[in-house]
Structures are given as structure tokens and as C-alpha cells.
Amino acid sequence: MTFNGQGDQTPEDDPWGFLAEREPSDSAGPKSEDKQEETAPRERGELRATVAGPSLRKRALPTALALGAMSFTAFLTQITAASQLVTAAGPGWLLGFYALGGVGLLAMGAVQFGFIDQQARLPMIRVVMIGYGLLFAVAVMLSLASPWLLVGVGLLWLLAEQTNYLVPLLVWTLAGDEFNVAEGRKVFPWIATFGYAGQVLGLAVATVSPWLMEGLEAPLLLVLVLNPITCIVVGIWLAKSLKGTSAAHGLAKEESFRQSLDSARDFVQGVPVWRHLLLGSMFTFIAGMTLFVMYLGGVREIVGDDPATVQRVFGLVGLLACLAGWAFSVLGVGKLLEKWGIPGTLLILPIVTVVGAVLVLAGVLSEILLLVAIGMGLWLAQRWSVDRVARRAALALVPNERRARLYFLLELAPVGIGLIVGAGAAAIGVWLGLAWPVLVVIIIVALAAIQQGLLVRRDWEGSLLNWRLRRRKTNRSVAIDFDID
Fold it and tell me: Could you tell me which of 407, 390, 409 has the C-alpha nearest to residue 279?
């Protein structure tokens, strides 16, 4: 299909103006009739959004580039900081920072929870990004100073968790403010590819940077000087690029933190299936985060304490898992959602968690790195493809004014709790000097997630009739995620 580029002539005061036809040079005859027919109101606007594809991409480019840049920063930092923590710190330090990552995620999520749906987006994201940039600068300087290595690396780990989960939410919220439903169907998959591209690039740089840094005789952590620059540039440039657009505003509804919490709780209590969905998410991520810390320790046990080697392993496993997940997102997720629906698709990750835990434990006990890598890679590939799309598809059913808050409850809170509980479960294994008790914990929790998922699947169809899931019919009503047709 060929696309027209009329969007450059859009009047700023007309949110649907980018869908209008060009003014014809000759207003007589059939052209006038064509024009009249095209500008007639349409109920959903899908055709109009389709023919204006290039215009949509031009408008989406700032948020797409910001998402890609922050994905790059998050995954480069996570792999680099994890390798340093695993090799430079003992089990106590590693598990301590692992738990602190969960506490920090919950704390910052709670701060944003109370005002993300009301405040003007651009001033908020500018302050947040510049703040992260300054913190990254401090963390990198501490990491390069030998006496403060663990403090600096620990701070980098905490910042990686923040930029991996909280910052993408802000960017997607900006996109949700800018595009209506019909536009979002066309442009959100394109925006999402930038997030995947940034993730792939960050993991690729994390994989190859040890060879580069060794060749230059430079510290491994020096590559992270890119982080503060990226954050500050994105914060200033994104706010400037989107000034005057719909993304510049929140919902302009003042609420206290208590009111925001009550609003989300009212939704969950009013749609009973969401209680099971949230419990299933919590159990899934507790099991997954416990598996991840088991994987970190297992790689260190097999390859030793060399940070460069550990970083290459972490980076390569993550890179291959990301590429596999990306391919499956393009080729298979839509078919799965069509065949199994959202609740059936969400059951895949807890099942894969059990399989991955068995493979990781077998690899640790036999000291076969390939088994450890496959076990973790399976989980990451499913998490970054099938599970991610299914969760955002579920969130698309939530009204705009509550969707960001439900995102916190569905993804951020379970991950934060998972990091904390995962550290505790791994501490039991460290204390006993045995790996299999950790496997038992993972399997029990994953089975609890499967049980909740089956309840969701049983009650899902009936819940769709609940009035709380109805969208507000405005031109700016749009999902945070992208729809898979």
C-alpha cells in the first residue's frame, strides 16, 4: 500500500487534521466530490490513520528515539553492573543490592504512581531524565574510583532497574497522550521497534565492550560514560521536540496519592478477574527474579571471577534471547493471542519459568554453562516477547485515566517484590550451601502463578462485560501498548 504524506500540513488546533486531503488545484468536477467524501466523519478512523502513515511516524519519531535511547542505556548498564557485582562482591553484597533494586523500584514507582496521570508530562520527564543523568554521572565516577567501586556499581545497578522499568512507562505515556486509538494501531508497533533496537544495541555493546576496553587498556566501566550524556540529552531534546503537542499535558485532574491508590484499588475490586491477574503477575515475577539471581550466581561459579568474561556471557545470552524474542514477536505473538487469547498467552511465562529453573539448576550442578544459558535465555525470550505483548494487550482494556497506575500494579510492583523475595530465597541457598532449595521455591511459586492464570482464563470472557473496562470515547483515548491484529 502506498501512503500519502499530508501530515506536514496539519493545523495544530485540529487533532484529526493530519487525516485531511490536500487542497486540490482544481476544485471543480469529481475532485471536489472526492474531497467531500474523504472528509466525512468516520466512526473509528482506521482508513484515515492508514493513509497518513508517514505523517504519524514523523510525529512519533521523538518518542521512538527516546525509547530506543533509554532501552540502550538500561540494558548496557544492567549487564555491565551485574557482571561487576557478581565478580567484585560476595553473595551478601549481591543479594543486598538485588533487594535494594526492588525497594528502589517500588519507592520510585510509588512516587510516580500518585501524579503520573495528572501532571504535565514534559516538565516531569525533563526533570526525571536530567536527574537520572546526574545520578549516572556520580555512579560512574564512584565506580572508577577503587575505594568506592562497590558503592558506585551498586548505584549503577539501582539506576539500571529504574531506567529499565520506570522510564519506558513515561515515554509510552507520552505516546498515549499524543495518538488516538486509530493512530496508535498503526504507529505503536513502529515505536516499539525502536525499543527493541535500543535493547539489542545495548546488549551488543555490553557483549563486545570487554574486548574493546581491554584493547584500549581502559576500565570496563568507562563505557558507561555514555549514560549521563544520553539521559540529559533525551530529557532536554524530548521536551523541546514535543512542546505544544497533546503529549505535553496530563489529564489535568488533581489527586492525592491516597486518592490515586483508592482509584486503582476500586478498579481491581470492581473487576474480580484482575485480582487473579495481579496475583499471578506477582507470583510469576517472584519466580522469575529468583531464577535470575540463581543464573547470576551460576555463571560466576562456572566461569570464575573475571569481570570481562562474565560480562561477555551475560551480554551474549541477553542478546540472543532478545533477538529470538524480537523474531517471535514479529512472527508468532499475534497468532498466539488469536488462538489462546490474553489469559492463555499469559500462562506461558510461568510454565517456561519451571523449565528454565530445572535447566539452570542442572547446569550449575554439572557445571555446563550451555544449560545455564539456555534456561535463562528461554525465560528472557518469553518475557521480552509473548508476555510483554500479552500484558500490554490486557492493559489496553483499562480506561486511560487508570492505565498507567494499573501498569505499576501489573508489572512494576511484581518485579520490585520479585527482586526482594528473590534475594531472600537465594539467601537460603547461600546459607545452606545448596542450590536445589532455590529450585523448589521457584517451582512452588511458579505453580501458584499457573493456578492464578487458570482462574483468569476461566473468568476472562465474563469480565469483558464489566462497565469499568469501557473506554472514554475521546479522540485522545489510546492504549499504552500496541495492538496485535
Answer: 409
The 3-state secondary structure of the chain, one letter per residue: CCCCCHHHHCCCCCCCHHHCCCCCCCCCCHHHHHHHHHCCCCCCCHHHHHHCHHHHHHHHHHHHHHHHHHHHHHHHHHHHHHHHHHHHCCHHHHHHHHHHHHHHHHHHHHHHHCCCCCCCHHHHHHHHHHHHHHHHHHHHHHHHCHHHHHHHHHHHHHHHHHHHHHHHHHHHHHHHHHCCHHHHHHHHHHHHHHHHHHHHHHHHHHHHHHHHHHHHCCCHHHHHHHHHHHHHHHHHHHHHHCCCCHHHCCCCCCCCHHHHHHHHHHHHHHCCHHHHHHHHHHHHHHHHHHHHHHHHHHHHHHHCCCHHHHHHHHHHHHHHHHHHHHHHHHHCHHHHHHHHHHHHHHCHHHHHHHHHHHHHHHHHHHCCHHHHHHHHHHHHHHHHHHHHHHHHHHHCCCCHHHHHHHHHHHHHHHHHHHHHHHHHHHHHHHHHCCCHHHHHHHHHHHHHHHHHHHHHHHHHHHHCCCHHHCCCCCCCCCCCCCCCC
pLDDT of residue 17: 34
Q: What is the pLDDT of residues 5-35, one digit of tens each?
A: 333 444 333 333 333 333 344 434 444 444 4
The arithmetic mean of pLDDT across residues 95-107, rounded, is: 88
pLDDT value of residue 92: 72
CATH classification of 59-252 is 1.10.1060, yes or no? no
List the CATH code of the domain at 255-464: 1.20.1250.20
- What is the model's pLDDT at position 326? 85
Prediction pTM value = 0.79
Q: How far is the C-alpha of 168 from the C-alpha of 65, rounded, in Å?
A: 12
Q: Which three cell numbers stand for residue 381?
A: 525470550
Mean pLDDT, residues 71-100: 86
Q: What is the mean pLDDT of the chain?
A: 79
pLDDT in the model for residue 118: 59
CA distances from 270 to 117, 275, 342 (A): 20, 9, 20
pLDDT tens for each residue of 242-259: 877 665 555 545 666 677
* 255-464 shares the fold of 59-252: yes
- Domain borders along the chain are 59-252, 255-464
